Amino acid sequence: MIYLDYQATAPLAPEAREAMLPWLGGPDTIGFANPHSPHRPGRAAAAAVEVAREQVASILPPGGRVVFTSGATEAINLALAGSGARRLAVSAIEHAAVLDTAAALDSRLNVLPVDEAGLVEPSLPLGEGTALVAVMQVNNEIGTVQPVEQLAEAAHAAGALFLCDAVQGVGKIAPPGNADMIAVSAHKLYGPKGIGALWVRDGVELTPIVLGGGQEQGLRSGTLSPALCAGFGAAAALSKVRMEEDVAHVQALWRRARDILGRWTLNGSAERRWHGNLNLRLPGLDVPRLMSDLRDVAFSAGSACASGSGRPSHVLRAIGLSDRNAKASVRLGFGRYTALREIEDACARIDAAAAAQGV
Question: Which of 82, 284, 325, 327 would staple 321 via disulfide (CB 3.0–4.6 Å)?
Answer without folding.
Answer: 325
